[in-house]
Design goal:
globular, seven-stranded mixed β-sheet, alpha/beta
């Protein structure tokens, strides 16, 4: 650690803060310390406000460099594990931070669940495998702990670092043209120490991890403009630096030991067994189903509309407490079997039916599920009790989706939950939601996991209805993104889909 530090300038607030940040950033190459000391002081103070006093907490500072953030955390009394994979970066201020570890952030030499907070600033764009860094952040973080990930996204104004603005030509041609005209950059040569990391694909990595719960995504330097982070494409350009704040799922027990919660372990074990079951249910969506089902106490009723081969039914049955009834409604008629599979054959339907029971049997929940092999509009008499949890993933056309939302949704008990798959993704389902939920009086929009929207049955006042409708209308930007991805997929333009954050299969769900 350096023996003397540059004084931390007062940033102030409002326009004065932005002028100060810009002035210090302009001089960052010649005088990096004032700029980074100010960012570090602001970041650590903000984390203390959000998560409570940092004194005696264990914090991992990944990509610590010369230790600006490490020093700020230690000034607050935190016990900091400083980590960097480049010895030269550790020595930028003269000497390395005290007790710093030279290690790859994608393979940390730390035990599982060993830190209270994990901080990673401006490292991700320099990592060959961002998914490995995020996985390691999750692994070392204790249940209930906080995470902070910040990086310069590729298409932001400074995404190319020294190569800016050539990076706007893309990661393939931009670096080539820059080097042809100017030679290799001073540092961070593309493909060696700099990589194109986009916001959409990075958020998708979080979405695939049921053990991480994203709290907020915002532009680092103007967090008040976080609404732009909900608009694919725009956020890649308008956010100079992206911040993802998250927590590790699970609750730490008392007594000093830090194992994951038994409920989280049960879910992760179930999901590992279900990964080979065909279906369109992402891990984050399965976790939302699991959490809502496991919260119910007997007697209660869970109804699923659209089971396909049993992925979601198995999650619900494994999560539900004894005495909670799980009813799966699916005609297994060969229709609406998945993306672009609206019409099928009797044989395909029977194959789905056989696979459904085989999968439930393999997971040991065949006796926990009552299957109703009928179309949902013909199965109302099969369920007589009020519904505590309704999961709608039936036919995706506008008319059948509208019927499910109105007739089955109307049977959800006060305080109950309705989850709707392919919301703001499927045109038919989205139109049905706009018709029934945006101005509706009886369901409050809670949020979504990818395309699984959650609603709670409550009576809304006129003012609450306006706010509730606005929250749902705000999802239309994401809906438009999904339509573009589908069009690009049909047109065999995978690059367009990847730019919008879709990288995990042929169809967004």
């Amino acid at each position: 650690m350096t023996s003397s530090r540059a004084p931390i300038p007062s940033a102030g607030h409002g326009l004065h803060r932005y002028r100060t940040l810009y002035r210090l950033w302009r001089n960052e190459r010649e005088e990096p310390e004032p700029f980074y000391r100010l960012l570090a002081a602001e970041a650590v103070a903000d984390l203390a406000r959000r998560h409570g006093p940092l004194r005696d907490t264990v914090v991992a500072d990944l990509g610590c460099g010369p230790g600006y953030y490490t020093d700020a955390f230690r000034d607050e009394g935190a016990l900091v594990i400083a980590v960097d994979g480049d010895f030269g970066e550790l020595l930028l201020a003269g000497t390395a931070p005290d007790d710093a570890l030279l290690a790859d952030a994608g393979r940390l030499p730390l035990p599982d669940a060993s830190v209270d907070g994990v901080f990673c600033s401006n490292l991700l764009e320099h990592a060959r495998d961002p998914s490995a860094v995020i996985a390691e952040m999750a692994r070392v973080l204790r249940p209930g702990g906080w995470g902070y990930l910040s990086w310069t996204n590729w298409y932001s104004p400074w995404g190319g670092h020294d190569m800016t603005p050539y990076h706007y030509l893309g990661p393939r041609w931009g670096p080539r043209l820059y080097e042809r005209r100017h030679g290799p950059p001073r540092k961070n040569r593309y493909g060696e120490a700099l990589f194109a990391v986009h916001i959409g694909p990075t958020l998708a990595l979080f979405d695939e991890r049921p053990d991480l719960e994203v709290e907020v995504v915002e532009p680092r330097y103007w967090p008040w403009a976080r609404a732009i982070m909900r608009v694919p494409g725009l956020r890649e350009v308008a956010s100079w630096n992206c911040v993802v704040r998250f927590t590790r799922a699970g609750v730490e027990p008392s007594g000093g030991s830090r194992p994951e919660s038994p409920e989280l372990r049960r879910f992760e074990h179930t999901w590992a067994e279900l990964e080979t079951v065909e279906g369109w249910l992402a891990p984050s969506q399965a976790r939302r189903l699991w959490d809502r089902a496991s919260a119910l106490e007997a007697p209660a009723t869970i109804v699923e509309i659209g089971s396909y081969r049993g992925r979601s039914a198995s999650v619900l049955a494994r999560a539900a407490a004894p005495g909670v009834e799980v009813v799966a409604i699916d005609p297994h008629a060969g229709n609406d079997r998945g993306p672009q599979q609206w019409v099928g054959t009797e044989d395909e339907g029977q194959s789905d039916h056989d696979a459904f029971w085989a999968n439930l049997g393999r997971l040991g929940v065949a006796d926990r599920v009552r299957h109703v092999r009928r179309f949902s509009q013909d199965a109302h008499d099969a369920v007589t009790a009020p519904i505590d949890l309704l999961y709608v993933d039936g036919a995706h056309g506008y008319r059948p989706a509208l019927d499910d939302l109105r007739r089955w949704g109307g049977r959800v008990a006060p305080g109950g939950t309705m989850l709707v798959h392919d919301s703001f993704s499927s045109v038919g389902v989205t139109l049905a939601l706009l018709r029934t939920m945006v101005g509706g009086r009886h369901f409050r929009y809670v949020g979504r996991s990818r395309s699984m929207a959650e609603y709670r049955r409550v009576d809304l006042s006129a003012t609450a209805r306006v706010a509730n409708g606005a929250r749902q209308l705000a999802e239309l930007g994401w809906f438009a993104r999904n339509l573009v991805i589908k069009a690009a997929t049909v047109a065999h333009l995978p690059g367009v889909a990847r730019l919008l954050g879709h990288h995990d299969g042929p169809w967004p769900y």
